User: What shape does this take?
Amino acid sequence: MYRAPLRDMQFVLHELLGDDRLSAYYADVDYAGELADSILEEAAKFGENVLEPLNRPGDVEGARWTPEGVQVPKGLKEAYASYIEGGWTQMSVPGDLGGQGMPHTVNNAVEEIMFASNMAFYLGTSLARGAVEAIAGSGSGDAVQPFVEKLVSGEWMGTMNLTEAQAGSDLALLRSRAVADGDRYRIFGQKIFITYGDHDMTDNIVHLVLARIDGAPAGTRGISMFLVPKYLLKDDGSQGEMNDVRCISIEHKMGLHASPTCVMAFGEKDGAVGYLMGEPNTGLQHMFVMMNAARLSVGVQGLAQSERAYQQALDWARNRVQGKPVGVKDGASVAIVNHPDVKRMLLSMRSRIEAMRALAYTAALSLDAAHREAEPAAREAALFRAELLTPIVKGWCTETAIEVTSMGIQVHGGMGFVEETGAAQFLRDVRVAAIYEGTTGIQSNDLIGRKLGRDKGAAMNALIDELLADLGADEAQASTREALELLRAATASVLRQSAESMAAAQAVSVPYLELCGTVLAGAMLAKGAAIAARALAAGTAETDFYEGKLRTARFYADQVLPRAHGLVRIVQAGAVSVTETDPAQL
Ligand SMILES: Cc1cc2nc3c(=O)[nH]c(=O)nc-3n(C[C@H](O)[C@H](O)[C@H](O)COP(=O)(O)OP(=O)(O)OC[C@H]3O[C@@H](n4cnc5c(N)ncnc54)[C@H](O)[C@@H]3O)c2cc1C
Assistant: This one.
């Protein structure tokens, strides 16, 4: 059973990040901390009561391909209808695009609840906001407006169609074709791995598809983005005939069984009708709007599944009786939660979850700042920070989630390996989060190449300075300050290596990304501990809660943060063993 950790979420939103900035940014929607609280309470009710009960049955039943179309497991269609009725899609869409325009930070917290309750369900649903923003960003005209309205209302769902069999991480290899046909295009090609490419949850599906207009340049500079609906619209806006697009099969996967992952055939007959979004050959730039939104969401999936795994592991550890307390020979066996190693595992899970939450919500706040700060320079600095943090949230939260959900299985012992407990599903479902929307390797290369390279580490150093200032000279935070300085030194080292040999830098880019996540999120956790210490000193009534914050932060500083020393060594001196190995020698 999942219970949304509302108090922990509120702590990050209200105390760690602070309500003042969001209230100032979103005065137009009367944003206040209480509004966020009531949204989260409603999201918790929806997640816990509607989505969570469908999580395990959906995993067992799975999505089904039929010649008439893909069917999702029982209950998902009805759950989606209640989701729409609750107005959840509009909530996340900006006000000028027809939504309610709530802050990204609040949306991020809602996403945590939805993904924790049912990742396979929310995966497709969560794509709408990015799709709407990508379409709006492309500046496309009236022809696509009806599709945008239905995406915002949630009546129709959206997809992103990038991947092809020969073009995964490398979209330059993309082959799908677009041929001009009056004021539209005809699309031909096959896409693979398309999340919710077909399903029976909505009457129509709005595909955003990358394809090459005939005669376009090779590589990524020749890619355009098209809106391709499953059903075309008649002149009066009602649903017309089916477009020439079909799901020809779905994948049998390790996890996310309820989420259909589709092979899509475009143009088996005359070509699927597609509307060009933006100028020809600018497709990747527009699709990146959707991809960046999705990358942060995928990081939140890591956080969410980790929280889910932790709650279940804790419950198991409190109830499973096995072994005597250390040093006690006689007497009754005790619940395993009393054993030091089980406590270590649970603290390790919990402290890293709190660190992930702090990091992911901070990235979302940077996005809010990037849209809403008054001064252009402040907006640009916030955007750089959001863009810097995106690959770290995506890469670190998902890789950490793999460790945390695996640890959840370990806490269960043999029963963790048995599907009946459900512990394995969290790991099976979250495993792909480190792969889709760009693998960890791709995220880390983006981090060291584009994100550090463009400003020579200025955004990273500004963030380090800010965190150091937040921590102050407090003796309890000495190890965190040291770790931040190690990160600064490692950043300089990566920049040097990139200038001399990008191959050397890429040989250590994943350890560098892990270092960034470990240290930045750890510093945010330490900042939270300082806030908790102040609350306790001021005589708060929530003693257990704030003491808990001190405990997790101390565990993190003792048993997680020291990894930074090893990682810095790898970043500074670990490349040669990779670069000097010939692929033939592997
Ligand atoms: C369940 C699921 C859902 C998905 N949903 C969608 C979707 O909705 N829409 C969509 O378009 N796609 C989707 N995908 C596809 C997904 O985005 C790709 O699988 C992912 O981008 C990786 O591409 P690939 O599988 O071709 O792996 P490859 O690109 O072949 O990568 C294999 C390995 O090589 C590494 N690698 C590749 N190139 C480099 C490089 N230049 N430098 C360093 N390392 C490199 C990778 O990191 C990885 O470890 C989905 C995939 C899955 C499994």
Summary: The pocket of flavin-adenine dinucleotide is lined by residues 160-163, 168-169, 193-195, 253, 256, 261, 432, 435-439, 441-442, 445 (CB under 6 Å).
